[in-house]
Amino acid sequence: MPGYLERFDATPAAERWPLVRGWLFGEPLPFFAELRAHRPVLPTPEATLATRFADCAEILARPDLYSVALYRPKQGDYWMAQDDTAVHWREKGIMQAILDREDVPAIRAWVATTAAARLAAANGRIDAVAGLTRAVPIALVQEWFGFDDGDPDALCRWSYWNQMDAFWNQPFDAVAVPDPGEIVRQREAANAEMRDYLVALVRRRAAELQAGGTGRDPVSRLLRLAGSGAARFDPARVVLNVGGLLIGAVETTSHAVVNALDVLLADPQRRDAARAAAAADDPAAIDGFVFEAMRFRPAFPYFFRTCEADAVLARGTDHQTAVPKGTTVLAVTHAAMFDATAISAPERFDPGRGNGNTFHFGAGLHACLGRAIGGVMIPEIVRQALRLPELAVGPVDRRGGPVPEAWAWTWRV
User: Would the N or C end of the chain have less CB density within 10 A of its end CB?
Assistant: First the structure.
């Protein structure tokens, strides 16, 4: 059978991107191996793919050259949709301080208790997406982020449509999205509901503080900062940033947990070793298995950027490639995490290798704000699942879309 690049070159230019996109999601590892070896920078009419570690690292480290301009129509003036701006640095710094890393051990213990309780209540049968991988991060948003009176279904819907529009409804996704405009409409409707809820929540927390309350949830702490005048951070920015906590917490966590578990359960040797680690007294014994599984199947195979000036990728190599201004560039970090120049024996599943030179939480200016929390929540949900006796799972149901939507599990009670 002809190789990927031979088939690519034989395909009319207008038909190449759908072909490449199908391989990117359907046959990623062999496709990426051929690209890294023979054409590590692959231009198509819709997007240019970079597949080697050095090029992906450069793209993510150069917001001056590779921007997040495609975020702006979806996220407005939220700081994550900005690059090297005062708003970005100020508000990211504020939110990093609000998400205290000192709380991470307590959060992990809480996730363990919450996930175990939900599985125990399920009595041996569950839709793992609705009942666990989305439900636990929603409960965390309620318990730790101050959304305690939020309706779980609404919280899930608001996160879902924002994630779907921002990350899976870009111009280069059009070949796989039947109705891009409907996703935009759903996101706008979700945001109108979420804004009403958040405004009411912020007003209620403000009234509690005025009455002498000492709330430690992020909303209360942000309001105290806004009221102090110590930073340019008014109640409207509180609403925007609190919404970002919700949007970032749910769907990406669910996707990562499902992918990691699917990889671990698919191979009997990996499964048995991971189950033994999950049964250990040390909760962190499972972590290496989970993050290595995420290397094999990350939630996001790439990060997209817009080239802001004529640029060059793979500079100084035989594969040096010009990238014109305005090009959509995909840093295909799934491929980069199998680059032997950055990862030792990349084809080997090695739970002891550590997270060096991986992109599980992005990299550079736009690395994930909640990486410390995600770094314990994801493996702890996996750990509790692997402790179920005689767990049997069906296929992950993505319902024709990019994210896990349902997953039927049974186990012995």
Answer: N
